[in-house]
Fold:
Amino acid sequence: GENVEQHPSTLSVQEGDSAVIKCTYSDSASNYFPWYKQELGKGPQLIIDIRSNVGEKKDQRIAVTLNKTAKHFSLHITETQPEDSAVYFCAATPGSGGGADGLTFGKGTHLIIQP
Amino acid sequence: NAGVTQTPKFQVLKTGQSMTLQCAQDMNHEYMSWYRQDPGMGLRLIHYSVGAGITDQGEVPNGYNVSRSTTEDFPLRLLSAAPSQTSVYFCASSYSMDRDSPLHFGNGTRLTVT
Structure:
């Protein structure tokens, strides 16, 4: 089955700086790569996703890049703000349709924004 | 629109006790699932359902039962709780398992088994 590795487990950055979280996956058939943000005491919430037919996707201060050859994808957050502090999870699925089919999660990155 | 609602938020059980974690969604989603979240382990799929009357096992199903008698509800049952089941449990749903159907998570149930 799919195996998703996520690094680092903890990331501390100064407010206003950029943060990068990296994930690798094992199954070359994977074609859907979502990122979830989990705030304290809440469930994960989808913040951005990318499919295997594109290399980069941006949404305001967040962006995701995908390198299918190397089987890795990354989350980039620019101009970090205190409300970006949370645990971030990457995920991948080789499901024929993407979405929830066969989704495998990374172990999470605790992002800390220092004032 | 409540989304995915989980009850209770917190629960303490003694070893061997049974209980049911409730999950309900009001979005008419076909797909529902249960995950457990443990420190350093990420989210692991326990059971899932692609529609009423249909359930299947995920990565870590042992010790848990599920049923899906209605589209809205997907309860998770622990028949004989063990300390290894101490965890935070999340229910999630999506319109289908297809693309463009992101998962929506509830806010979790924190379970402690002593």
About this structure: Chain B touches chain A at residues 4, 31, 33, 40-45, 48, 90, 92, 94, 96-103, 105-108 (CB under 8 Å).
